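**Backbone geometry record:**
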Amino acid sequence: MFETSQNIQQVNSFTAEQIETLNNKYRALSITERIKELYKDFDISDVMLTSSFAATSAFLLKLVSDANTKQEVFFIDTGYHFEDTLKYKSVLEKKYNLKVTSISAIKEEHEFTTKDETWKKNPDFCCSINKVQPLETIKKKYKVWMSGLMKWQSDHRSTLDIFEDRGTILKFYPLVDVSKEERDAFIEKHQLPFHPLVAKGYHSIGCKHCTVPGEDRSGRWNNNPKTECGLHL
């Protein structure tokens, strides 16, 4: 396992030197090797994996299921997902024998955003209630958060490294330097299932109120400068 000092373990944080050591090690590995190596450097009980079950989520989920079938997958159920997203989730759960746990906002707070239609007036606040806060309740239990972000997806994501310090947790992006072409080639080679809405022009899929057809992330929060829900900032 990756060695940390007792004090570092207590605050669930890592030094810059430790993170650079991890990045130098993992840059030389393939995406498959990176995920396998993670379970050598960290105990599975320390690893949190999230998936939005959107667009091409099968990419990361297949890699993880091949490496460790015991990994739990957290799905943030905002209550505003497309029905196709929930169907896609069911397909991937069965195909890759995933252990999925859904988490949601506090009932009264979610109901407030529905009655208030908060996504129209303050999408950041809506995302905070329905996405960010539910994850905050469980995030403190883990040391590493694995996610499928890739550099080409947005300006913010273009600055990321394989491992990133996020204060209370270490972010792990095993696919971060995978190009769009490499992703598509992997999907084609392994015949991974796409989200049903991809065929209708949706290439980044979130809540139904805030998603329209568009290339990459251009269909998210349409007519709004917002590009991230806040989970990965």
